[in-house]
Amino acid sequence: MLLAGSGYCLLGVLRGGLDTSFGLGIGGFLLLFAVLAGLAARSVLRRGRFGLGYGITWQMFQALVGASMLRAALYLPGALALLLAIGAFFALVTLVRSTPIPGGED
Hints:
This protein is mostly helical. The protein has helices spanning 2-15, 20-45, 50-71, 75-98.
């Protein structure tokens, strides 16, 4: 979804529907987070620790956005974002507890 949003912004700039600096800024920002989310997913799949911390932080931001959407009367997407953030947060915390610390005792 991040890549799709980035592509949408960049196409909006090319078609003239978005201001150039705004569209490029948002498109680049979303592209950066898509790359970081991909690296975090790769880290989780390889049982690394980077992806877990990044994922937990991302879920906190998603919960904040979901709560903001609820305040703006966007009830269905806000509730969905909040529920997904909470579920993913607990799944990631479970993974943190089962992932060994590098260089730690076994």
